[in-house]
Amino acid sequence: MVRQGMTSIKFTAAASLVTAALVTTATQAFAACQPPAAFPKWLQGFKQQAVAQGISPRTVSAALDGVTYDPATIAKDRGQGVFAQSFLQFSNRMVSSNRLQVGSSLLKKYAQTFARIQQEYGVPGPVLVAFWGLETDFGKVMGNMESIRSLATLSFDCRRPEKFSAELLDALRVIERGDLSPREMRGPAHGEVGQFQFQPSTYYNFAVDFDGDGRRDLIRSAPDSLASAANYLRSIGWQPNQPWLEQVRIPNDLPWDQADVTIKRPRLFWAKHGVTYLNGKPIPGDNVPVGLVLPMGRNGPAFLAYPNFDVYTEWNNSLIYSLTAAYYATRLAGGPPLAKGNGPVTVPSTAETKEIQQILAKRGFDVGKIDGVVGAATRNAIRANQIKYGLPADGYPSAELLNRLRSGR
Ligand code: CA
Questions:
Q1: Last residue of a domain, one of 202, 235, 268
Q2: d(CA 206, CA 1)
Q3: pLDDT in tens for each of the 409 residues of the chain?
C-alpha cells in the first residue's frame, strides 16, 4: 500500500511484491544527506519528543534503545528507479492463474469471516483477497527489514523527516497498545507492516481485532488483517453493494478526450456512444457516474471505473496497480478474463515515452517529471497534441504520436 504523491507506476516506497514486479533497485551507494554520526544525538532528542507526545518511557526505551542508522534503508529509498510496465504486462504477471486459484480457495476457506466482514464493513471478499494477493501473496511475503530502524533512519534523513517521524510515533503507539512488539515489526524499507502492508499510521488508526483475542495482529491473524483492510477501505470511501470496475467493449469512434479515470460521466453518456459489456449487452442508460479508462489507449482493454474505483487509487495511486487490483477482484467475483481490445497496441519503450515527454516539455507543456512514466500531466499534454494533430485523443503515447512529434511540427 503506497499513498504518497505519485502518479502512475512511480513508487518511492512500495510493498515488497510490487517492488519486485515494478521497480528496479539500483545498486550504487547513495550519499547520506545527514552525517550518520549525528544519528545517536538525533535519536536521543526523538525519544524525548516521543515521551512528550504521551508515549510511555518504557515503550520508547523498548523500541528505540540501541537502534542504529541503517544505510540499507537509505540505499533503497534513493535507489528505486522507475521501471515502466504496461498494464497488460503487469496484470498478466500479477493476476496469474495460480493467484486466481489460491484466491478462490481462500475465499472458500474464510467464507464465514468474509460474510461477517461484508456485513460489518460492506466490502466484498474478492476485493480484499485481491489486495491481499498483490500486497504480500496472501501474507507470505511481508518484507524482512526492521521497521523501527527503517522509520528512525528515514525520520533522521533530510528527505521527508516530518512524514516518517509521524509514522515512527504511530509505530510506537501500535507497540504501546500491545498489538505488536518492536521485534515483530518487519517489512519493506519504509515501515510498512503486515499482510496488507499498512503504514504505521494506518495500522494505528484502522486496525481492528476481528478474531477476538484482544490484539490487533496484522502479521499473524488473517481475520484481523482482512477486517482491518475492510475497515480502512470503508473509511476512505468504499460504498457497499456498488461495483468498482467492469470491462466493456468500445466502438472505433468515441469522444476520446472524455475517456479518463479523472472524468466521470453518467453511464448514459457512454451507452449512447455505443459502449457495451464484453458480450455485447448494452450498459444501463442511467445516471450512475463512471469513468471510461483505457490503460493502453483506444485499441487496448477498456473499463468502466465506478466511484469505488477511487478507493483503489487512494490505496495506491499507481493507475496500473489500481486497475490490476480491481480487475483481479472482478475475476475472483466471477467476471470475465481480460479482453485484448480492438486492435494491436504498440507499447512504447521507457525511452520512447521519455522522448515524448522531452519534446512536449520543450514545447511548453507540463508533463510532470520526465521519467518515462505516463501520469495525469503527461496524459493531458499528449491529449492536447493529439487534438492538434487530428489524432484520436486517447492520451496514449502511441508510435503515431511520437512520429508526428519527431517530425517537429
Ligand atoms: Ca486479534
A1: 235
A2: 14
A3: 765 433 333 333 334 455 444 444 443 445 557 789 999 999 999 999 999 999 999 999 999 999 999 999 999 988 765 557 889 999 999 999 999 999 999 999 999 999 999 999 999 999 999 999 999 999 999 999 999 999 999 999 988 999 999 999 999 999 999 999 999 999 999 999 999 999 999 999 999 999 999 999 999 999 999 999 999 999 999 999 999 999 999 999 999 999 999 999 999 999 999 999 999 999 999 999 999 999 999 999 999 999 999 999 999 988 999 999 999 999 999 999 999 899 889 899 989 999 999 999 999 999 999 988 888 899 999 999 999 999 999 999 999 999 999 997 6
Calculate how far, in angstroms, residue 113's C-alpha sits from the geometric centre of ligand 1.
13
Instruction: State which residues form the domain around 365.
Output: 350-407
Q: Residue 142 is placed in which grid cell?
A: 511481508
| In a shared domain, residues 126 and 218 | yes
For residue 186, report the distance from its CA to the centre of ligand 1, in Å.
18
Residue-level length of the chain: 409
Cα–ligand 1 centroid distance for 203 (angstroms):
13
149 Cα: distance to centroid of ligand 1 (angstroms): 25
- The rounded Å distance from CA 301 to ligand 1 centre is 41
Residue 293 lies in a domain: yes
The last residue of one of the domains, among 268, 303, 332, is: 332
Sequential DSSP letters for 37-88: GGHHHHHHHHHHHHHHTT--HHHHHHHHTT----HHHHHHHHHB------HH
Is 175 in the same domain as 33?
yes
Asked if residue 376 and residue 250 are part of one domain, the reply reads no
